[in-house]
Amino acid sequence: MLMPRQKTPNLSLPTLNDGTFDLSSDSAERYTLVTFYRGLHCPICANYLKELERLTPEFAERGVKTIAISSDGKERTEEMAAKIDAKNLRFAYDLPLSVAKEWGLYISTSRGKTSIGIEEPALFSEPGVFLITPEQTLYYASVQTMPFVRPVFKEMIGALDFVIANDYPGRGEYTGEV
């Protein structure tokens, strides 16, 4: 399990338009918002990423860089970026499932074609949303076992305003006896 205020696993992946994404050198002023999504086959992911695309400039105003990541290959990632008309949101692809597991993501098996008629990969990761500090430590994490009921990006922007104004620390860091 990843722990707040502790270093996260490394993350270095190809992107569609920005060379290689390397979390250790992403140079966000305050945070990098890493959004792992299931892949092109997921209609809920498309809607979710469309909202993140829309709000990426608001995150940027707060010193937060955004990136969407899946285990899909380049072609399927290009299709997803086109589907949501991405202009601001970075997309990385070819996430190894072993790395997804290091991040605490759940792995699912294919059930064939989805409701939108796109084949699921044999294996893929379920969603996760992470805020990572410039020092590559975990500030916030939400990991899900299902595609439903994800963190709301607009609410996250409001929370960031509070966090920034109050220098609020990452929580959940205690590892001692209880």
What is Rg?
Answer: 16 Å
CATH architectural type:
3-Layer(aba) Sandwich
CATH class assignment: Alpha Beta
- Reading the helices and strands in chain order gives EEEHEHEHEEEEH
Strand order of the largest sheet: 5-4-3-8-9
Mean pLDDT: 97
**So what's the oligomer here?**
single chain
Q: Stretches where pLDDT falls below 50 for ≥5 residues?
A: none
Give the helix proportion (percent range).
25-40%
Overall, the morphology is: globular
Q: Whole-Å distance between the termini?
A: 17 Å
- Overall structural class, as computed from helix and strand content, comes to alpha/beta
Query: What's the CATH topology label?
Result: Glutaredoxin
Number of strands: 9
How would you characterize the largest beta sheet?
A: 5 strands, mixed
- What count of helical segments does DSSP give? 4
Q: Estimate nothing, just give the exact number of structural domains.
A: 1
Percent in strands: 15-25%
Describe this structure in words.
The mean pLDDT is 97. Helices cover 28% and strands 21% of the residues. The chain has one domain: Glutaredoxin. The strands form 3 sheets. It has a 5-stranded mixed sheet with strand order 5-4-3-8-9. The chain has a two-stranded antiparallel ribbon with strand order 1-2. The chain contains 4 helices and 9 strands, in the order βββαβαβαββββα. The relative contact order is 0.23. A hairpin with a 5-residue loop joins β1 (12-14) and β2 (20-22). The two termini are 17 Å apart. With 178 residues, the protein is α/β, with parallel strands linked by helices.
